[in-house]
Amino acid sequence: MYLKSLNILNFKNIEDENFQFNQRINCFVGLNGVGKTNILDAIYYMAYGKSYFNPIALQNIKHGTDFFVIDAHFVKNDKDEHIVCSLKKGQKRILKRNGKNYDRFSDHFGLIPLVIISPSDTDLITEGSETRRKFLDSVISQMDSQYLQQLIQYQKLIAQRNALLKNYALSHFLDQDTLVVYNEQLEILAHPIYESRKQFIQDFLPIFNYYHQLITDNKDDVQLIYETQLNSKTMSTLLTENLNKDLALQYTSVGIHKDDLSFELKGYPIKKFGSQGQQKSFLIALKIAQFEFIKKQKGIAPILLFDDIFDKLDENRVRKILELVNLDTFGQLFISDTHAERTENLLNSIHQDFEIFKIQNPNNE
Ligand SMILES: Nc1ncnc2c1ncn2[C@@H]1O[C@H](COP(=O)(O)OP(=O)(O)OP(=O)(O)O)[C@@H](O)[C@H]1O
Q1: Ligand 1 pocket check: which of 13, 60, 360 to mutate, most ligand atoms within 8 Å of Cβ?
Q2: How many domains does the chain have?
Q3: Does ligand 1 have an atom closer than 6 angstroms to the CB of 320?
Q4: Would you say 158 and 187 are in contact if contact means Cβ atoms under 8 Å apart?
Q5: Can you give the pLDDT at residue 365?
Q6: Helix (H) and strand (E) counts in the chain
Q7: Residue 66 is part of which domain span?
Q8: Could you give the percent of the chain with pLDDT greater than 90?
Q9: Which of 14, 23, 321, 356 has its CA 20 to 30 A from that of 6?
Q10: Residue 222: strand pairing partners
Q11: pLDDT tens-place string over residues 32-74
Q12: What is the pLDDT of residues 192-224, one digit of tens each?
């Protein structure tokens, strides 16, 4: 699978750009702030229906305009896949596949497998559990649409249950019948989600360990530990036991929406005890393992976006990653870098077909 062409209109700082891509490696080079990452983000948008960097959709519309359109042609299994996403202020986001609107954005999930490696991945280590849950859910959902639907339903039910709890705080009336229904439905949904997450970590961990060793050249023990209240109690027990607390808090404080992933290096949390370099290697191994996992499951190499990673890594790690590229492990690759010469030299050294796009500041054209 590969991205053949891309047209971007009014997306972030990009006014109107057209690209015809190389099937193998494409590099966007240019000075800081010219919009290289924004182009990668537009590609990301085609796979996920949202920005990797800015979750507030309206803020992705170019300043001073009132809509954006991203239009892409992919080739998948020798067939053209035409994906268009657009957003106009005051209207709903539209996502189309081959001219037909999606009713549910989630139906698009997984059609275009894609993995991004970016400096902002450090959020996975530094931010709260929600960021890690989103990562977990995003990887599993790319391969399992049933999981995604269960998750959406679960989140809807939690929102409804929270509304009920809030209502109790206002009216002091608790609609017990509705609460029982919500609790039962949550019990039904929580367990398959829990089982899928548990199974995923079990299958993913050896791949992650393999790439971590390959990139770092050492055998440091790395762990991803799935932390969940469901290890010790059922969802319905948790909900029943914590009802008084939930009523006081006015939200549901227990369940799989509180799960977390603990990242450990040699038995210690990497957030507290990992050096910056160790954290970076950890994250890159995590993302390359994500890539490999999806590839194994789907039989298709996901598109890979490398945002600025040459800038942030030492030469040894860059070499290791490029060795992987050279093994033909990867499918199509998009790279952003500030140094045109460095990128060109690196790519010449791996003897692969590539194309360089020089991106200029739109205001200096
Ligand atoms: N909605 C928007 N409208 C206009 N410009 C925007 C919008 N959102 C972001 N930008 C601009 O896009 C630019 C950043 O682009 P981007 O992050 O793609 O740069 P880059 O080329 O990757 O830079 P670097 O090499 O520093 O990572 C910034 O100048 C930012 O202000």
Answers
A1: 13
A2: 2
A3: no
A4: no
A5: 47
A6: 12, 14
A7: 1-113+307-365
A8: 77
A9: 321
A10: 265
A11: 999 999 999 999 999 999 999 998 999 999 999 999 999 999 9
A12: 999 999 999 999 999 999 999 988 887 778 999
Atom 18, ligand 1: residue with shortest CA distance: 35
Give CA 74 to chain center in angstroms: 19
Tell whether ligand 1 has an atom less than 6 A from the beta carbon of residue 280. Answer: no
| Amino acid (one-letter) located at 4 | K
Which pLDDT does position 312 carry in this prediction?
Answer: 63
Tokens of 125: 């280590």
Kindly state whether residues 252 and 331 are assigned to the same domain.
no
The answer as to whether 118 is a domain residue is no
Ligand 1 pocket test target in 17, 38, 358 with most atoms within 8 Å of CB: 38
The owner of tokens 């530990």 is 225
Tell me, yes or no, whether 168 and 217 share the same domain.
Answer: yes
* pLDDT on residue 363: 64
Residue 63 or 330, more confident: 63
For 127-147, what is each residue's pLDDT tens digit?
Answer: 999 999 999 999 999 889 999
DSSP sequence for 106-126: GGGTTSS-EEEE-GGGGHHHH
* Closest C-alpha residue for ligand 1 atom 14: 33
Is the domain of 311 the same as that of 295?
A: no
Contacts of 218 (CB under 8 A, 6+ apart): none
At 222, the amino acid letter reads V
Q: Is any ligand 1 atom within 6 A of the Cβ of residue 37?
A: yes
Rounded mean pLDDT, 293-318? 84
CATH number at residue 359: 3.40.50.300
Whether ligand 1 lies within 6 angstroms of the CB of 34 is answered as: yes
Contacts of 175 (CB under 8 A, 6+ apart): 164, 167
Q: Residue 35: CB within 6 Å of ligand 1? A: yes
